[in-house]
Specification:
alpha/beta; globular; two-stranded antiparallel sheet
């Protein structure tokens, strides 16, 4: 999925704001951010962190500087095990035209040494927006791995799967009663872009505004598609 093809597809699907959330790496966010500007789309740097418990946590940043600093810290938290491209495929870093710039050798499929609590706190401490991904999924979700959502840490929202029905998710998981639900496409292919989305009512596309929306402050709010 080249930067231009992702942005063109996002425009065609009527999206206004997207994030790139590769697994344990933000190495490709920069070229996608530039493409987003070219297509007049708002863009957040993102990453899907896999914690020590094998829980997926999404981190979103509206400022690239703390995002890339966090990315360095995340990279250092990964075990120094090399990727096996014959088994897992190549891990490529690309330029704006999707030419391969380099191959990432460290295995990004592995977990960080950070626990779920540690990952959330680290993201929040540098101004990022953190929430557990696809909590309704049977794998790599906080509920699947722990059986519950820890209450000792503040979570403004939780993520749900692209094709899930929010009302059904709340019925099936009563512990989500008081959480905002964020639905996104988690797209690995162009055809999946926009398959899941959330309406954010914000004055501008910033993490601070998103946090206000989670609290229903000053007219900001979150609305699910059903």
């Amino acid at each position: 999925m080249s930067p231009s093809s992702v942005m063109q597809t996002a425009k065609n699907k009527g999206l206004d704001l997207i994030a790139i959330t590769d697994h344990n790496s933000m190495a490709n966010c920069g070229v996608y951010a530039k493409a987003a500007r070219d297509y007049k789309l708002d863009f957040w740097y993102g990453v899907e962190v896999q914690t020590a418990e094998e829980i997926h946590v999404l981190a979103l940043f509206d400022d690239p500087e703390p995002a890339l600093e966090f990315d360095k810290e995340l990279y250092n938290s990964l075990l120094p095990i090399e990727n096996d491209p014959e088994f897992f495929g190549d891990q490529v870093v690309i330029d704006s035209k999707a030419n391969i710039v380099r191959f990432e050798k460290r295995a990004l499929i592995n977990s960080s040494i950070w626990t779920f609590d540690e990952a959330i706190k680290k993201i929040q401490s540098v101004g990022g927006f953190a929430f557990p991904a696809h909590v309704d999924a049977q794998t790599y979700s906080v509920i699947a791995q722990l059986g519950f959502i820890p209450t000792n840490i503040s979570l403004p929202a939780v993520g749900i799967s692209a094709k899930a029905k929010p009302q059904m998710v709340r019925q099936n998981f009563p512990q989500l009663k008081n959480y905002n639900l964020i639905q996104n496409s988690d797209a690995h292919y162009l055809k999946d872009i926009g398959s899941g989305y959330t309406d954010f009512y914000l004055e501008k596309p910033t993490v601070a505004e998103l946090k206000m929306a989670c609290k229903n402050e000053k007219g900001r709010k979150i609305k699910n598609k059903n």
